[in-house]
Amino acid sequence: MSNTHSPRDIDTSRPHSARMYDYYLGGKDHFDIDKRAAETVAVAYPGIFVCARENRSFMHRATRVLAREHGIRQWLDIGTGIPTEPNLHQVAQSVVPDARVVYADNDPLVLKYAERLMRSTPQGRTTYIEADANDPHTLLNAPQLAEFLDLDQPVALSLNALMHFVTDAQNPYAIVGRLLDALPSGSALALSHCTPDFAPAIWQKVTDIYTNAGTPVQFRSRDDVARFFDGLELLDPGIAVGHRWRPDASHDDMLTDAEVSLWTGVGIKP
Fold it and tell me: Rounded to a whole number, what is the distance in angstroms from the first to the last CA of the chain?
């Protein structure tokens, strides 16, 4: 593991979005305070477990599509979260064993578990860097990034369930634009983003729960999510609810858009 930072103290005095997400996925890397907050969300929005699962499934499918159909061999995954197998590099390397994946997160809890993200194939490479999506300049200039990724060759920028934690006051479109500007033609953006479009009252409650817990969020409409792909060539089917983006054989036909409440898309940089 190439990261030499020591994990900062992990704050267990308030719920944490990554640990709550771990609870939604049925993981074990969370505390009682996270479980209580997550269950409060689940009372307001019972679909949260479906949403988390479908977000994960979209990441798997988008990764496979980019590897198989678009020749992508490098990924930059920002807002990695607590590792949940199969991780992105395991999915990518199952298709292209020489895939290289750089994970980035600013969360001390993720750093604690980051060794799980280092289990690469012999042909490929993976690493974890401690960096904040709100500071793309520092992230892009991290030594490990240049060491592991060739920025003259296409890179898939993976932003899964991240940008709704970046409010408009933090200029999210400029952040994504700056990241994409650093990547060459043929690179890709794979993005998922929770939305209030199908159940605005419910998602207002979810917004209030997170905000009151100290984690500002901004869930966005389809049009606002589409703006992240400005200048890119969207792959079919365009911006779609998570379970409708190139569903595989395990697709659940009974899911509703309101349950999933997740806009997803993959775009290629011309």
Answer: 34
Task: Work out how many domains the chain is built from and give that number.
Answer: 1
| pLDDT tens per residue, range 172-218 | 999 999 999 999 999 999 999 999 999 999 999 999 999 998 899 99
User: DSSP readout, 103-145?
Assistant: EEE--HHHHHTGGGGG---SSSEEEEEE--TT-HHHHHT-HHH
Angstrom distance (rounded) from CA 25 to CA 48? 9
Asked if the structure places residue 185 within a domain, the reply is yes
The answer to whether 136 and 171 have CB atoms below 8 angstroms apart is: no
Instruction: Answer yes or no: are the C-beta atoms of 242 and 58 closer than 8 Å.
Output: yes
pLDDT of amino acid 9? 62
Convert the pLDDT of each residue in 82-104 to its tens digit: 888 899 999 999 999 999 999 99
- Phi, psi at residue 263, to the nearest 5°? -85, 140
Indicate which CATH number applies to the domain containing 110.
Answer: 3.40.50.150
**What global pTM score does this model have?**
0.92
Here the tokens at position 204 are 């207002």
